[in-house]
Amino acid sequence: MIRGMLALVIVAVACTEGRSANTGGDDAIAGKLVGAWDATMTLDRPYPLQPRSSEARTICGTIGVIENRTKSASVDEVMSATQLGVYDLPLSRIGLEWSGNAPFPAATVSTTRTRSYPSSASDSVRIVLNPGSEERIVLSGRYEPSGIQGMWTAQSARGTANGSFSMRPHVSANVARRSCPRS
Predict the structure, then answer these.
(1) How many alpha carbons lie under 13 Å from residue 47 in its C-beta half-sphere?
(2) Which segments of the chain does DSSP mark as H helices, in order?
(3) Measured between alpha carbons, how far is residue 147 from residues 29, 141, 166, 167 in Å?
């Protein structure tokens, strides 16, 4: 089912040719996020109340992002997100996704222009995995033309876990070259 949802997002991106209908300044960066991304998450600090140690310290997978054309000013996190997405990440290998209560692996994506350094073209990107679930995983990073890098935090009844992440635009040729550490 996860692969089917990811395939649906990739088909939707292909139908829009990877371009966003947005034309504003901040929306230009948001439009560049539409597509499939190769993602790597590294665990720095596991949940303090984790029943067993994590299988891995680093995981790799894919996040697919499409434009949220139903965006509203609602306080609902999903409806106000710039983009929506799905992901295929083996979160349980690093001790996340413990309750499995999400109906499918959903994500919301939003951007904010960084104005503190006018010469910088970087933007802040916020990705929430499992929005509205008992285990909320927030990836906060900076968009650069080569990809996105930042930190992630997960909060649940077991405490807080965190680590770092990176994302690169998915290219079919990368599948053969991409490797994820087994440790």
Answers:
(1) 23
(2) 2-15, 25-32, 77-80, 174-177
(3) 12, 10, 7, 6
20-25, long-range: CB within 8 Å, 24+ apart, which pairs?
Answer: 20/67, 21/67, 21/69, 22/67, 25/113
The Cβ of residue 162 has, within 10 Å, a number of other Cβ atoms equal to: 16
Distance of alpha carbon 36 from alpha carbon 6, whole angstroms = 9
Write down the domain spans for the chain: 2-177
Fold that domain 2-177 belongs to in CATH? Lipocalin (2.40.128)
Query: Quick check: 48 and 171 in contact, CB under 8 A?
Result: no
Are 127 and 106 in contact by the 8 Å Cβ rule? The answer is no
- The 10s digit of each residue's pLDDT in 143-156 is 998 999 999 999 98
Q: Please return the burial class of 133, using the count of CB atoms within 10 Å of its CB with bins 0-12, 13-18 and 19+.
A: middle
The pLDDT tens digits of the residues spanning 104-163 come to 789 999 887 655 544 455 568 999 998 888 888 999 999 998 999 999 999 988 999 999
For residue 88, what are the β-bridge partners? 62
